[in-house]
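ok trying this again, last paste got cut off
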Amino acid sequence: MTDLVVRRLLVNMEQPFARHWCGGDPFRTALFNALSMSFPVGEQFFIDSVRNGFKSLPPEQQARFKDEVQGFIGQEATHRRIHSLYNGHLETQGLINHWAPRAQARLKMMDGMDLRHPVAITAANEHFTAVLADWMLANPDLMAGADERMQTLWLWHSAEESEHKTTAFDIYQAMGGSEEWRITWFKRITAIFLFDTLRQTLNNLQHDGTLWQWRTWKSAVVTLFGQRGLIRQTYKPWREYKRPDFHPKQQDSSRSERWLADNSERYTPVGA
């Protein structure tokens, strides 16, 4: 079981931020902005899936997961609210969120499905975000020169994604979800996630007017494929999900724990 604390981030997201807030780097800014555009819809789906899966469990199982599920929902609801504010500034900057409506259309197709399928999809997405989060926590200098509020937001979000990475997975197993469907959904989500991330990032760059600048593509190569690149460093932990004996707790969470311990002045536990 995982003890999950709901935290209120002590940053002012009401104030606008620079167009290229990530140290003046158009590609990294566009990539992070693309991910943020997916979060409000995605986080709500994760909340609904885990809540509905939890409610389907027998009473003795519900008692086991009650506190953890409440913490998970609280953390994801906080992420949804913060990124909604973030995305409002992106809209003001002239960026268009194509990811969210595509995701909403796909989710409508899931109405009436077995409750285990949305939880399997959530577990797969949570693995993606946990792997991405650990990469960000391992390489915080990649955001050097970024707006301090945005650095705090992304590293706090990363720490909490790593912190609650087991919740949906454990609920899925408690529901009797099969390994076949767990891995099938993971493969499908991989394709959808990569396509949507690439498409929205390119769209952001196009609207920004920096799509065809040399510095944009140079940064893309370094950020994705460099020695500490996203794809190079996350491929191995990503593929581990396909192992029949995989569990998220097998992957290290020490960077998350360390960031939360070292940056307690940047948030307040809700109810404290």
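PB: full thing came through this time. Strands lie at 7-9, 267-269.
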